[in-house]
Design goal:
It contains twelve helices and 23 strands. The protein is α/β, with parallel strands linked by helices.
Length: 420
């Protein structure tokens, strides 16, 4: 447990690590490439290292130099792995690897923590079955653990439901170019979190893969394409920037997150504009985005494309005047924790009225007080509620080490705010 000391931030500049989402996708693409890839500034966190370890079990050779990872690609296929591949509670690892595992040989068994076994993956398995791949949930419940047979992925037409996660679509896009016939993908529902689809398509393009698309409803990827070996750099993580912008928003301070710009395809960069609507000032230059706090007022905002930022926004809303309505977020129930319920519960402990409805979250700003915050083994809960401790005394965070999942140095970077 750690206690967050109240502090009025002045002017600060911080750097955040590489994007978790970019790192997962880039490592997988590199492992499928036709030679050696150099991946610079990858995020080294629990989740991304699980993906790297899985790829090594599937035949990729990696030399990890911390700030640089060199990966010898497998030219569109993977080697057999008789051992179970453990992915803890990394939903991104589970979903993306479940797709590309079909490019390998033998049968791959992907496992995780008890929480992972409640996170849905059935829509992706259904899509793989449409393609003639005998993918299945071990317990026949649409959730991990899963078994994915290799050697059956020839390609074809497929329809996929992405109302729960866009990662199902990203998994198909990553595997598509290495199939014989390619994939013609129709999205029947969703996708939620659309910027993550754009990110996947952009990374594919960087590796030399061509994708034809009709918005977010149709994607055609020709088969027999090759992931191109080369030198790739991971951009800073916009989702991690949000906690520092939020700290500025609620304290009236000014925080610049270096290297994060609106040019990014990461949807979470849009959180700065939400804070602007609430009364903050937002400035951008070639070095990064700066948020300066002001008098905060409630907003109504659709967060379907920024689901990971919902707890961040909810905590900031606790210090705004009025009731903030956060819409289109039902899929947060299937994250590392049930983030809608968890966020409401912990805000309630602080005396803040928060109500989760079927597809939205309502937070009414008020007189928050200190509390012991449970994190549910969810990194984003710990980092979000750290912001509240800057404004009210007595905020203590249980299991602060859960940030290892995505931002191992979070508390070190967080403490630099006290110098500004």
């Amino acid at each position: 447990m750690i206690e967050i000391k109240p502090h009025r931030i002045g002017r600060c500049r911080v750097s955040v690590p590489g994007s978790k989402s970019y790192t997962h996708r880039t490592l997988i693409a590199a492992a499928l490439a036709d030679g050696t890839c150099t991946v610079r500034r990858p995020l080294r966190s629990q989740d991304t290292l699980l993906t790297l370890a899985a790829l090594e079990k599937m035949g990729a050779t990696a030399v990890d130099r911390e700030t640089v990872i060199e990966i010898q690609g497998q030219n569109g296929s993977f080697k057999p792995c008789a051992d179970e591949i453990y992915l803890a509670n990394s939903g991104t690892s589970m979903r993306l690897l479940a797709g590309v595992a079909a490019l390998g040989q033998g049968t791959y068994t992907l496992t995780g923590t008890p929480r992972m076994y409640h996170r849905p993956i059935g829509h992706l398995l259904d899509a793989l079955v449409q393609l003639g791949i005998d993918a299945r949930a071990v317990d026949d419940n649409g959730c991990p653990p899963v078994r994915i047979p290799g050697g059956q992925a020839t390609g074809g037409a497929v329809t996929i439901n992405c109302s729960v996660s866009s990662q199902f679509l990203s998994a198909l896009l990553l595997m598509a170019p290495c199939t014989e016939k390619g994939l013609s993908i129709t999205v029947s529902h969703g996708p939620v979190s659309r910027p993550y689809v754009d990110m996947t398509v952009d990374i594919l393009a960087d590796f030399g893969i061509k994708v034809q698309r009709d918005g977010y409803t149709r994607f055609d990827v020709a088969g027999g394409q090759t992931y191109r070996a080369g030198d790739y750099t991971v951009e800073p993580d916009a989702s991690q920037a949000g906690y520092f912008w939020g700290a500025a928003a609620i304290t009236g301070g000014s925080v610049t997150v270096e290297g994060v710009t609106r040019a990014s395809t990461q949807g979470d960069v849009g959180l700065a504009r939400v804070f602007e609507r609430m009364g903050c000032r937002v400035d951008e230059d070639e070095k990064g985005i700066t948020v300066t706090g002001g008098k905060l007022t409630a907003v109504t905002v659709d967060m379907a494309d920024m689901p990971d930022m919902v707890p961040t926004l909810a905590v900031v809303a606790a210090f705004a005047e009025g009731t903030t309505v956060i819409e289109n977020v039902s899929h947060l129930k299937a994250k590392e924790s049930d983030r809608l319920t968890a966020t409401c519960t912990e805000l309630g402990k602080m005396g803040v009225t928060a109500v989760a409805e079927a597809d939205r979250l309502l937070v009414t700003g008020g007189n928050a007080h200190g509390a012991v915050i449970d994190t549910y083994d969810d990194h984003r809960m710990a980092m979000s509620f750290a912001m509240a401790g800057l404004m009210v005394p007595g905020v203590r965070i249980n299991d602060p080490d859960c940030v290892e999942k995505s931002f191992p140095t979070f508390w070190e970077v967080w403490n630099t705010l006290y110098n500004g």
